[in-house]
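Action item from last week, closing it out:
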Amino acid sequence: MKLVMAIVQDKDSNRLANAFIDANIRATRLPSTGGFLKAGNSTFMIGVEEVRVPETLEVIKKTCQSRKQYLSSSMSLDVSMDGQVPYPVEVEVGGATVFVLPIDGFYQY
């Protein structure tokens, strides 16, 4: 048994939840927040048999694609300027960060 933890952007989370249902993969979704962009994420916890890990990873990979997005960033152009000027910065968002962990025990009560 393995625990797959997938952290995905909120925009991808509903699509991924539906893909898990279609593939008969049970998952628990928890709301989370990213530290870098401070944007909403969802963390999925999936307990699967080891033989289903590649299938689970493939569902995540197909559903959560990274993409480019422009965000406004405050950046000072001159040290003597008091105000900050919003400056668009291109960042990569989306995709998934996935951890596969061993499970020492599994219990249902």
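Closing note: The two ends are 18 Å apart (CA to CA).
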